[in-house]
């Protein structure tokens, strides 16, 4: 598959041929279930003229269906472009196909979509990761050049790691959330999934920047990164010892070897600890569900998408539409979110979670004031078997290395560094100070080059 850099040089005719090829290949790889269109037996969109970029089904593209892989949004058509899509189009790219995902971006395995599961292109008995599993599987299976996903607690970095791609979550507020269907507004961020760090930088440059339509957009200077990419900078990197220790033996070994290589190439490596991740999980699943319960209240059967039939009164309409429209995990989170926000429990859970969030953020800032980047695992293991998580808690524990970055609002990237004995990808995660995406991409490119040239 050609890189985005090469694609930028193609003529309109060549781009048309490329899109046809992608479409044909996607049909052959239908069993992976990377695109929503494949479940619906229709072609991927080829209506625009730019370089094709696959889009997660929770980012609005004007006149396209937008369903967040949920039954409740069946029939809804986005009336406008998300700001990230508008920027994409202005920079020579065009949306190409809707990628499958966990319903409303809640999950880490892309097994809860209304359309069906997405499978891991490296090994079809494994999950693709999630919630942006379709976006990652499409790039991993060479049926997309690059894709957009969203990352609330790891949903770009983790599936990218499972599908052997680069997953980049910019700092909170760097990419506009306008037109991204909200899950947890204080954590959500659009990110990129690509074949390489250089492509991540190209795609990031095309979508990022201040947007007055998003009140949480970062109103600070944004400079493009690609023309300044420099893998030769020598960086001081803090490796998180207590997290690396927690990963499974193969992941741990691969990360320790990567650190040795970084050191041999002139980077300074220092080992330090972060807080116990039990605080991350507790704080994240309280804050994310609290915000989700509020954000998802808009899906009432009246305003968007699908409405239940045989309704007797207004209450019946709400109850039936929501009961029929949402899947189990989404309902579980709405219930949990309402509970932690209810009077009597608000102080005990929600306020406490906000305090834990401040603590986590402070700890990161303390470490980042003493280094350029932080290094740690993305996932405790490589891609796990389909249907292997038996309880919601089992599943939530898969997120231990990704969610704290969102709680702290930082930028982070997952970069492939090794394979396990089954041939599944292992990635390392690099984290930067808020808005220092340039250093993050420089360090990631250095790591990628070291691994490729070993
Ligand atoms: N797995 C996490 C969750 O289920 C993160 C999801 C995401 O980043 N969208 O909430």
TrEMBL record:
Residues 1-28 form a coiled coil. GO terms for biological process: translation. PROSITE patterns: AMIDASES (PS00571). The active site is at residues 56, 131, 155. It catalyses: L-glutamyl-tRNA(Gln) + L-glutamine + ATP + H2O = L-glutaminyl-tRNA(Gln) + L-glutamate + ADP + phosphate + H(+). GO terms for cellular component: glutamyl-tRNA(Gln) amidotransferase complex. Its EC number is 6.3.5.7. Keywords: ATP-binding, Coiled coil, Ligase, Nucleotide-binding, Protein biosynthesis, Transferase. Heterotrimer of A, B and C subunits. Belongs to the amidase family. GatA subfamily. This is Glutamyl-tRNA(Gln) amidotransferase subunit A.
């Amino acid at each position: 598959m050609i890189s985005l850099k090469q694609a930028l040089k193609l003529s309109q005719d060549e781009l048309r041929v490329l899109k046809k090829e992608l479409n044909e290949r996607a049909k052959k790889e239908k069993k992976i279930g990377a695109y929503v269109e494949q479940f619906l037996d229709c072609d991927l969109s080829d209506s625009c003229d730019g370089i094709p970029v696959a889009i997660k089904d929770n980012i609005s593209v004007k006149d396209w269906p937008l369903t967040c892989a949920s039954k409740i949004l069946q029939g809804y058509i986005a009336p406008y472009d998300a700001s990230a899509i508008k920027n994409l189009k202005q920079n020579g790219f065009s949306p190409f196909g809707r990628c499958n995902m966990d319903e409303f971006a809640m999950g880490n395995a892309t097994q809860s979509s209304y359309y069906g599961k997405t499978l891991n292109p490296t090994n079809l008995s494994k999950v693709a990761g999630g919630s942006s599993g379709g976006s990652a599987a499409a790039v991993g299976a060479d049926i997309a050049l690059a894709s957009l996903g969203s990352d609330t607690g790891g949903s770009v970095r983790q599936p990218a790691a499972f599908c052997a791609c680069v997953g980049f979550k910019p700092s909170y507020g760097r990419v506009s959330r306008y037109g991204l269907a909200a899950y947890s507004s204080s954590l959500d961020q659009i990110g990129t999934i690509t074949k390489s760090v250089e492509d991540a930088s190209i795609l990031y440059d095309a979508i990022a920047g201040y947007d007055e339509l998003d009140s949480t957009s970062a109103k600070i200077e944004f400079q493009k990164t690609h023309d300044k990419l420099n893998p030769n900078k020598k960086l001081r990197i803090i490796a998180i010892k207590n997290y690396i220790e927690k990963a499974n033996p193969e992941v741990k070994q691969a990360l320790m070897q990567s650190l040795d290589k970084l050191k041999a190439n002139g980077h300074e490596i220092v080992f330090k600890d972060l807080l116990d991740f039990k605080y991350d999980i507790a704080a994240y699943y309280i804050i994310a569900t609290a915000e989700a319960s509020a954000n998802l209240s808009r899906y009432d059967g009246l305003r968007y998408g699908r409405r239940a039939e045989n309704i007797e009164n207004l209450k019946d309409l709400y109850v039936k539409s929501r009961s029929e429209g949402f899947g189990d995990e989404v309902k579980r989170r709405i219930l949990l979110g309402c509970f932690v926000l209810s009077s009597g429990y608000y102080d005990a859970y929600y306020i406490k979670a906000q305090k834990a969030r401040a603590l986590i953020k402070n700890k990161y800032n303390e470490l980042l004031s003493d280094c350029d980047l932080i290094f740690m695992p993305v996932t405790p293991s490589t891609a796990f078997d389909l249907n292997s998580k038996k309880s919601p808690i089992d599943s939530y524990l898969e997120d231990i290395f990704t969610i704290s970055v969102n709680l702290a609002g930082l930028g982070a990237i997952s970069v492939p560094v090794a394979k396990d004995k089954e041939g599944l990808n292992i990635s390392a995660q690099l984290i930067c100070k808020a808005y220092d995406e340039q250093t993050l991409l420089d360090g990631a490119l250095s790591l990628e080059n070291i691994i490729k040239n070993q």
